[in-house]
Design a protein that fits this description.
This protein is mainly alpha-helical. Among the domains are: about 30 residues, no CATH class; about 30 residues. It is built from 3 helices and 2 strands; from the N terminus they run E-E-H-H-H. The chain has a two-stranded antiparallel ribbon. Strand 1 and strand 2 form a beta hairpin. The chain starts with 6 loop residues before the first strand and ends with a helix. The relative contact order is 0.07.
């Protein structure tokens, strides 16, 4: 297989050449020491078990109010909704 320096994509804002791809493939084929790999964060737990996504329909006026509250609190839409439900249901 011939190796040229043709650009094949982007990684972290830098061009990745075919030569780069082949070097990464060679490194992967040689194997990795799993103990040296960086651990990725992931989402923090919310409560005693993994969180569940619950789809809910919200009218435009309520959505606007939620968005305004989230912006005012430097928060997210989800955080505002969770806090409102906790207060309404009187749950910690």
């Amino acid at each position: 297989m011939s190796v040229d320096n043709k650009v094949v994509g982007m990684m972290d804002g830098h061009e990745v050449s075919q030569r780069d791809v082949e070097a990464m493939a060679d490194e992967a084929e040689a194997g990795y020491d799993v103990g040296k790999l960086k651990r990725r964060g992931g989402r923090r737990r919310m409560g005693s078990a993994p969180a569940e996504v619950v789809p809910v329909r919200i009218d435009p006026e309520l959505k606007a109010a939620i968005d305004a509250r989230a912006a005012a609190d430097s928060s997210s839409t989800s955080e505002v909704i969770r806090e409102a439900l906790r207060r309404f249901l009187e749950v910690a």
